Amino acid sequence: MADQQQPKGRNERGQFVTGHASLGGRPRGSRSKLGEQFLEQLYADFAEHGPDAIARVREEKPDQYLRVIASLLPKEVKVATEADLSDEELDRRIRQLAAALDLTFGEGGEMH
Prior knowledge:
With 112 residues, the protein is mainly α. It contains 3 helices and no strands. It has helices at 30-60, 62-72, 87-100.
């Protein structure tokens, strides 16, 4: 099968090779130009009307407003809590915070 000749403009897996617009492919860069133009126009429209549109959606369609906000948040957030710390780490953290607040510890660990 390795000896078989591939159709012109295709690689060994039969996929079109870039740079062969004469074979019916799109001209190089045309897709990105369309995307760039769309984004420029969208940005210009948002710059002019975006804040008002956001306020209108928040007031008239709060469910859609919250859906957009939720879609912008990461799917998963790793949060470390004090429960995840060992006793030594927790003690060290308390002492660091106390030092930052200019507090001191007396006998039995009581703060002054």
